[in-house]
Amino acid sequence: METGWWTLPRHALVPRRLDGTLGVAQKEARYPLTTPPLPIARFSTEALPEAERFGAWHDAMSALYEVSSSTDAARGRFRARATCIQLGPMILGTMRADALAYERSPARIRSDSLDHFILGLADGEVLIQDLGQPLSLPMGPLSGACIVLPRSMMAQVLPATETLHGARLKGGMARLLLEHTQSLIRAAPALTASQAPQLARATQQVIAACLMPTRATLDGVRPHLQATALVRARRFIERNLTEPDLSSARISAAVGVSRSVLYELFAPFQGVARYILGRRLERIHSALADPGEHRRIADVASEFGLMNEAHFSRVFRKRFGYAPREIRGTGLGRPVQPRARGAGAETRSQRLEFPMWVEQLRE
């Protein structure tokens, strides 16, 4: 039976000329001379007949859990999708699935002898699951991310791993671990298998810092945590550029870091306020260059919090070297481009299933 799993073909991510042919650089990208791409698998019930959807998800999750649904009707309406990457000795994934119950009974533990940990990241917290101990997750939808890694990797950086089962981590550290995991999954199509060991070690350090935040582990993982926090801060700023109360206090609260840490993160940008002003000016520049934008220059500037026309003209000219009116309607702006969604990249591929990857973690 078709399981719903497929891998992303590398050529689907390579740009082509208008005539569909590949240039020299693109050929090199399509046929890399060094290492193969990072393994990526995606699952979706969308293309499967309704009668097979629950069974496909059950088969995929059977590598870890005994799965049950509430009613036969619920099975018929079941929907799920997931993305997983094989990051060397660990697996990272994001998933969304309708309500089911998941269990690891003593009998199941004896039969499969899995000795892994799963870190479930959802709703602002991390749930630590030791697959060597009984577990019962009540009926409910599944939405979030996860990290599957062998006990040996946990034991290398955390003491007394047998005491971690069932523990929950909340707050800023939980958000950082989730953001780190999601960032790696988003970047996976551009990564290669040769980079996996280094990224797995970095993830191991992030896990150690989040679950046991001692001075030693925080010092070792500080660059990774800072990079993740900076990404979160820049995204928050981008979403709130038109908000008049976009301040360091609000950003630090949203990201989960102190203001002193926030100032340190934005030191390469000459400070938080300078970065925000620069992003607002870029957005105003793009709007004014748009031939379809007919509002007054002052109205466009005020939308992004620059109310004083004289001040706005001065900082605009200082940044771009010309007055706002000179860019009006030229089409020469630098608009923020939406990230490509990889249309057509998830169409077909050889079969690759999550259970096989779980088995490989034993090795």
Short description:
The chain has helices at residues 24-30, 50-61, 72-76, 106-112, 151-157, 172-187, 196-211, 215-239, 248-255, 259-265, 272-289, 297-303, 309-320, 324-327, 354-360, and strands at 5-7, 40-44, 66-68, 80-87, 90-104, 116-122, 125-130, 135-150, 168-170. With 363 residues, it is an alpha+beta fold. Strands 1, 2, 3, 4, 5, 6, 7, 8 and 9 form a 9-stranded antiparallel beta sheet that branches.
General description of the model:
It is built from 15 helices and 9 strands. The protein is α+β, with helices and mostly antiparallel strands. It folds into 2 domains: 209 residues, no CATH class; 100 residues, Orthogonal Bundle (Arc Repressor Mutant, subunit A), CATH 1.10.10. Helix 9 crosses helix 10. It starts with a strand and ends with a helix. About 13% of the residues have low confidence.
Helices and strands in order:
Blueprint: E1 5-7, H1 24-30, E2 40-44, H2 50-61, E3 66-68, H3 72-76, E4 80-87, E5 90-104, H4 106-112, E6 116-122, E7 125-130, E8 135-150, H5 151-157, E9 168-170, H6 172-187, H7 196-211, H8 215-239, H9 248-255, H10 259-265, H11 272-289, H12 297-303, H13 309-320, H14 324-327, H15 354-360
Antiparallel strand pairs: 1-2, 2-4, 3-5, 4-5, 5-8, 6-7, 6-8, 7-9
Quickly list its features.
363 residues; alpha+beta; Arc Repressor Mutant, subunit A; 2 domains; 9-stranded antiparallel beta sheet; 9 strands; 18% strand
